[in-house]
Amino acid sequence: MITKGNQIEFRHLNYFIAVAEELHFRKAAERLFISQPGLSRQIKQMEVELGVTLFDRNNRNVVLTKAGAYLYKELNVSLKELEIILNNTKRLNDGIDGNLNFGYVGSAMQNIIPELLIEIRANYPNIHFSLKEMDNQKQVENLQVQEIDLGFVRLERVPNDLEIIPILEDTFSLVLPNNHWLNESNFKNISQLRNEPFIMFDASYSPNYYQKIMQIFDYYNFSPIISHKTVHSTSIYKLVEHNFGISIVPTALQTGYTKNVKFIELKNIPQRTILSAIWSKKNRNPILPKILENITKHHNILK
């Protein structure tokens, strides 16, 4: 029998998930290393126990019902949370305070991330952490399924199930090849560059950031000539260095890069870019509140 005291056993939820993902009983059975008839019997008994039909079956297709699709969606979230809880329990038993997974946009690595990791190591030496660079939208998606615990983004709004705090305001800077005619002494505003090609961060990488850059051009009443798009600042610098165009980046991104390019900070424009920390309201990682407290104490939190 599948039940004990009228309760469905944990392993049968895994059976259901396998069939829901494969939509094929034989493939699901092979994945689970059990027989196909045995799997079919267990799923049928699970449906009887719940009093619902989870799959519509015929000779050719297996399809989730509306009830089955709902159960699959909710189990994915719940079992992920359970896996996190069990992993945290094991780490605590092994003398490890916790594990924290970060997502970040590239510019956060210039100052925020290194500073934060140094502070974490000093205050919580038994925490393990992992880092993954990803665009804003990917961070939002990963936070919602708790693949990462904390993200650093350039967004002004996030979905209702996430929290966001702005932590650092930054200006923008022009990026020019060293041999460019424009410099600090003769620079007035970017309308001087209306006839030059610009290298931009791809809008797909961060639509919000792309719109912020375009607002700078709107401020001076011209549309830029866009010659190239990329998602990496190092690619931008390489293209600028070889005279494929010029660019605009957050000022923080010039840190550590001076080879054959020069920067002019755009101090006299209203546009600013804000780096924010975001996390899921549902995240119960026990170390996350401590890290958030650390961020609010030691970084330039904006009001």
Automatic annotation (TrEMBL):
Looking at the record, the residues that make up the HTH lysR-type domain are 8-65
This protein's UniProt keywords: DNA-binding, Transcription, Transcription regulation
One of the entry's Gene Ontology molecular-function terms is:
DNA-binding transcription factor activity
Give the InterPro entries listed for this entry: LysR_HTH_N, LysR_subst-bd, WH-like_DNA-bd_sf, WH_DNA-bd_sf
Identify the domain of life.
Answer: Bacteria
Q: Which SUPFAM superfamilies match?
A: Periplasmic binding protein-like II (SSF53850), Winged helix' DNA-binding domain (SSF46785)
Q: Which GO terms describe its cellular component?
A: protein-DNA complex
**Which is an annotated Pfam family here?**
HTH_1
Give the protein family: Belongs to the LysR transcriptional regulatory family.
PANTHER family (alphabetical): HCA OPERON TRANSCRIPTIONAL ACTIVATOR HCAR, TRANSCRIPTIONAL DUAL REGULATOR HCAR-RELATED
Q: What is this protein called?
A: LysR family transcriptional regulator
